[in-house]
Recover the amino acids of this structure.
């Protein structure tokens, strides 16, 4: 019947395009033609527009808001302020972290560019003129910019709304500007290990505030159908179902009357996980006007008000014996969360998974303390292309181990070999509470060192140093913790962090697969089809993957923290296996043998011992709708909800080589080698693309990305003129490589990779830069490594004379 | 990021454009490539009521040599400069500097006239024009006049151009064969304005420097012509001592603001470093051909 039968086994496998195939991405056909469908492409009949009046000050009382002139602007229909939202209970909104955040500033503003009023009008021009015409009268208040001063006795109190509360969602707090205190580990044993140590090091290591800055800014179109009572919101959402639940909780609308749709999303990197005032105001405006309302952020709005990342002020310490074997770790972190605690982490984890700070190393004991504080800055604290606070943790340990190597005079590769968790130690219980599923760190680093001729590089570095030239070699051997997560560890607003997959197979041998995740460029339409193709033997070209519409997709927690493959990818495989189990029953019926007499081969069931007697999956699909065993329900559909038993732990070994201009401080990345182990590789080309993108972002973060504030809390450089987005000209050439250590608990052994390059890349860059100055006794240099910062180090050391 | 409303005019001749400028006075603004003006309008830092688009005026385009001068129409784009064989052969400094401005898309729109008339100290061409002793041809309701580039810039967005005047042409004395020139620009990324940049134009008589002009970009309220740096080079073999002295004099005149490119002290040092590099490269080029 089908021509597949005439092909060789290899040809049949190739036709499937399943797991392991480096096939081109399905979605790119529309993206490279400019035919994607993003939120701003959506135009509904009668649609109007909204935009914000934003605060000029970082901290001020609002004396009055005069909207008269704005309402007189032709085309302006309404100006909404906190007073208008108050009767609806929408002027504040709950955050994913148990705090509340102002939707529109209520009596005072807490950061510059905060949303003060929402102007609605017939077109963007009228709205923009209306925004200009709103007159807000402020009384300036003292500003708190430096998080180190937040808990001072005389610090200005920022959040008067929660001033009296001893808990703002994440445990007891000790100051009106304090958000939470979190600690983990064994303090007594750690103190004892430090007291007894032969060597200790201590470094202050900051991770500056930066911003995920996706190519597409945030936005939405909200449309209230008053007749049917249904609210539809098209938006840039990484987690559409969570948004639906949150909208229901906030508005009191019943969840079946809310439809959230994420169309194509142009990058998220954590920036599009949370709920923003724009969504609420657009929805409120649609309810008020009865018209669809579109809100689209400008670049400056996005950079200066939507969720930032990092802003961790860390003090890290290691204790070790004379050989450099680590005996204890200690970390103390001050976390700047800005004006409201809107960080997006699983609820029980106010500092995310920062306790992965032991990294790839066998550390016997440790203790970590994190304190979160409010400042007069935009709220956030999201995971910018990393799992929750993992990049901060990886940066800290990878910097500390370099500092330890320098202190005792051991090579920076050698010190890692001395401390690695060994392959036979897996599953490995870390002293700070994680169970690492699998890994082989020594093999990865050995391969990396050989690939770059590490010894040759060190020789060259010595020769250059003798001539006064600055060359640095940076190594990072990082471990990620991704795939949030097991329901026993993780929830968001009480929802377990499972994910889901629904498969419907059509009679003629094709299928639609729907998931609770949402691609923002990761290539889910390609890779999830590949998983299903291998599992059920239908070509991946005949499998449509659909995400993002809460009316059709099964409930899921969305895409961030490299969780799609570990969680939804697993759901995909499990659902497909359910389909195959039913298919096997149908095949037994078609071939008139017992189920147990059949074996699976690529795209068909064969009778054991009689290979020419087989039913292909295509045959079975038709039979599922026409010729079923007695008593079996027709159809070939299933849904699977997957609650992972553990996280997955991707890892890698990166080497970066830099040359530094000693007259200007400019850094040239001569070489960057990245070996990633993400377990089973679903699509090597997609992995390579993910690694390239993540490394480019890591490069940007290490070399230039920082949201800077002046002493008045004015946000500086919130445009791409200053905020560093490297072009192809600046971006180094990447060499990628891999090892494969499958996850033992994931159905197909895959671990997730999208964020590894950001987690491992940043310390590799800093380590290389600092390494160039190690011979002069430099232990640490603060990020970002802009030319002028590096030049200051050069100048202090007199190396430019 | 949406401009206020304005009226749009597209004159077909210089006369018509000048008449419109005369009519609207301070409410009118010339629109050339739009890559400085339109961003300012989107931020509502500029709110002109009338835009006078000069892109339809054929007489403002073109690059030619006449009477010992290179004559470049004000509306010639950076891309036109990069594509000109005449400039590549007679004045390679111009394409060298043009290639360091923004990115290809912006260079297809952005004009030389807009770059030099804009008055932003971040623009690269003013310093190049000063180094080459260019002359700007201006036309207003009162007639035509010429102003030397070295006299044109008074401060940030403060130039000799009257609000009802149009810049029609840039006139550069054709550099003598055998001259050497270089523009050295330090920037954070493609499309960035200079942390510091310097131009040098040198000529030699035997192995002695016969003439020298050194200028700086984006380290003051306007481009800076460092007369003293040129003086330090003339008569010397442009050896390390002379170069160091010229760079020191350039740094002495540099007065940058601190910004996210670096503190003033760093940007001053970089002005010196760029001057050193520009002078050395210009000298090597002069000696090499
Ligand atoms: C991302 C980006 C990066 C950039 N990087 C650089 C850079 O590295 N270096 C650099 O030098 N520039 C840079 N620019 C600016 C760019 O080169 C502009 O094109 C240039 O500054 C102005 O030229 P324009 O033709 O676009 O003029 P417009 O923007 O149209 O006009 C600029 C000003 O000059 C006036 N004007 C223009 N033409 C005339 C005329 N003939 N007579 C009288 N007045 C006139 C206008 O009224 C206006 O005030 C950058 C711009 C962008 C957007």
């Amino acid at each position: 019947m089908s021509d597949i039968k005439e092909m060789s086994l290899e040809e049949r496998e190739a036709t499937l395009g399943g797991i392991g195939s480096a096939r081109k991405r399905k979605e790119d056909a529309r993206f490279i033609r400019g035919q994607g469908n993003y939120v701003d492409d959506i135009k509904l009949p009668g649609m109007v527009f909204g935009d914000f009046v934003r605060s000029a000050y970082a901290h001020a009382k609002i004396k009055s808001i005069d909207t008269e002139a704005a309402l007189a602007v032709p085309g302006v229909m309404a100006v909404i302020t906190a007073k208008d939202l108050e009767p609806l209970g929408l002027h504040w909104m709950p955050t994913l972290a148990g705090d509340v955040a102002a939707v529109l500033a209520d009596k005072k503003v807490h950061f510059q560019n905060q949303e003060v009023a929402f102007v609605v009008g017939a077109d963007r021009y009228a709205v923009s003129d209306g925004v200009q015409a709103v007159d807000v009268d402020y009384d300036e208040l003292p500003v708190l910019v430096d998080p180190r001063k937040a808990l001072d006795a005389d610090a200005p109190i920022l959040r008067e709304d929660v001033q009296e509360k001893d808990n703002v969602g994440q445990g007891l707090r000790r100051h009106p500007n304090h958000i939470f205190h979190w600690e983990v580990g064994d303090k007594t044993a750690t103190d004892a290990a430090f007291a007894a140590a032969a060597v200790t090091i201590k470094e202050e290591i900051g991770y500056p505030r930066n911003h995920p800055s996706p190519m597409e800014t945030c936005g939405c179109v909200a449309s209230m159908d008053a007749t049917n009572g249904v609210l539809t919101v098209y938006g840039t959402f990484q987690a559409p179902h969570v948004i639906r639940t949150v909208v229901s909780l906030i508005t009191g609308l019943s969840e079946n009357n809310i439809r959230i749709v994420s169309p194509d999303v142009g990058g998220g990197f954590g920036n599009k996980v949370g709920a923003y005032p724009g969504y609420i105001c657009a929805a409120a405006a649609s309810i008020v006007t009865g018209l669809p309302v579109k809100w689209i952020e400008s670049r400056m709005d996005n950079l200066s008000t939507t969720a930032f990342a990092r802003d961790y002020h860390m003090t890290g310490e290691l204790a070790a014996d004379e050989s450099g074997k680590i005996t204890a770790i200690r970390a103390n972190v001050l976390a700047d969360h800005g004006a409201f605690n809107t960080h997006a982490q699983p609820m029980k984890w106010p500092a995310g998974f920062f306790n992965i700070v032991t990294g790839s190393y066998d550390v016997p004991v440790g203790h970590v303390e994190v304190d979160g504080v409010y400042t007069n800055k935009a709220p956030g604290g999201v995971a910018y292309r990393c799992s929750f606070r993992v990049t901060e943790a990886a940066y800290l340990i990878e910097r500390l181990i370099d500092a330890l190597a320098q202190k005792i005079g051991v090579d920076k590769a050698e010190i890692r070999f001395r401390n690695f968790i060994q392959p036979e130690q897996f599953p490995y219980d870390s002293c700070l509470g994680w169970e690492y599923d699998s890994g082989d760190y020594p093999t990865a680093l050995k391969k990396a060192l050989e690939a770059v001729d590490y010894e040759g590089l060190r020789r060259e570095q010595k020769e250059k140093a003798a001539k006064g030239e600055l060359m640095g070699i940076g190594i990072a051997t990082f471990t990620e913790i991704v795939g949030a997560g097991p329901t026993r560890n993780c929830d968001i607003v009480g929802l377990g962090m499972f994910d889901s997959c629904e498969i419907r197979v059509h009679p003629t041998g094709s299928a639609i697969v729907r998931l609770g995740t949402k691609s923002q460029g990761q290539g889910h339409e390609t890779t999830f089809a590949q998983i299903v193709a291998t599992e059920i033997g239908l070509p991946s070209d005949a499998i449509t993957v659909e995400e993002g519409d809460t009316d059709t997709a099964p409930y899921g927690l969305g895409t961030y923290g490299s969780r799609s493959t570990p969680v939804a990818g697993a759901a995909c495989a499990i659902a497909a296996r359910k389909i195959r189990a039913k298919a096997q029953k149908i095949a037994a019926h078609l071939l008139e043998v017992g189920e147990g007499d059949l074996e699976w081969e690529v795209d068909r069931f064969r009778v054991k011992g009689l290979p020419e007697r087989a039913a292909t999956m295509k045959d079975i699909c038709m039979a599922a709708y026409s010729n079923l065993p007695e008593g079996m329900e027709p159809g070939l559909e299933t849904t699977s909800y997957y609650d992972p038993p553990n996280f997955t732990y991707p890892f890698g070994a990166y080497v970066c080589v830099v040359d530094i201009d000693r007259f200007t401080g400019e850094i040239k990345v001569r070489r960057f080698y990245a070996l990633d182990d993400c377990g089973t590789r679903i699509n090597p080309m997609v992995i390579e693309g993910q690694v390239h993108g993540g490394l480019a972002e890591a490069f940007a973060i290490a070399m230039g990305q920082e949201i800077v504030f002046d002493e008045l809390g004015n946000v500086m450089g919130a445009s791409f003129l200053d905020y560093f987005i490297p072009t192809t000209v600046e971006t180094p050439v990447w060499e990628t490589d891999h090892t494969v250590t499958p996850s033992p608990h994931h159905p197909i052994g895959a671990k997730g990779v999208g964020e590894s390059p950001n987690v491992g890349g940043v310390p590799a860059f800093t380590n290389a830069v600092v390494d160039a100055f190690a011979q002069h006794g430099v232990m640490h240099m603060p990020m970002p490594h802009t030319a002028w910062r590096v030049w200051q180090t050069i100048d202090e050391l007199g190396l430019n004379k | 990021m949406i401009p206020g409303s304005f009226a749009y005019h597209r004159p077909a001749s210089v006369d018509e454009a000048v008449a419109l400028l005369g009519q609207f006075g301070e409410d009118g603004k010339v629109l050339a490539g739009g890559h400085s003006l339109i961003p300012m309008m989107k931020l509502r830092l500029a709110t002109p009521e009338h835009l006078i688009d000069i892109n339809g005026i054929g007489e403002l385009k073109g690059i030619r040599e006449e009477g010992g001068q290179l004559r470049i129409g004000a509306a010639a784009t950076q891309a036109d400069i990069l594509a000109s064989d005449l400039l590549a052969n007679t004045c390679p400094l111009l394409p060298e500097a043009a290639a360091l401005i923004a990115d290809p898309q912006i260079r297809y729109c952005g004009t030389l006239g807009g770059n030099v008339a804009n008055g932003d100290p971040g623009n690269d061409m003013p310093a190049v024009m000063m180094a080459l002793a260019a002359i700007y041809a201006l036309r207003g309701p009162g007639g035509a006049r010429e102003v030397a580039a070295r006299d044109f810039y008074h401060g940030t967005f403060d130039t000799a151009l009257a609000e009802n005047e149009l810049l029609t042409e840039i006139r550069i004395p054709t550099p003598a064969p055998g001259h050497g020139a270089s523009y050295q620009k330090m920037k954070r990324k493609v499309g960035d304005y200079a942390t510091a940049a310097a131009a040098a134009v040198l000529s030699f008589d035997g192995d002695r420097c016969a003439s020298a002009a050194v200028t700086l970009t984006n380290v003051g309220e306007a481009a800076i012509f460092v007369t003293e740096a040129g003086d330090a080079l003339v008569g010397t073999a442009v050896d390390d001592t002379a170069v160091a002295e010229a760079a020191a004099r350039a740094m002495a005149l540099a007065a940058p603001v601190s910004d996210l490119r670096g503190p003033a002290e760093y940007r001053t040092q970089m002005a010196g470093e760029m001057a050193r590099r520009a002078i050395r490269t210009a000298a090597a080029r002069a000696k090499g051909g």
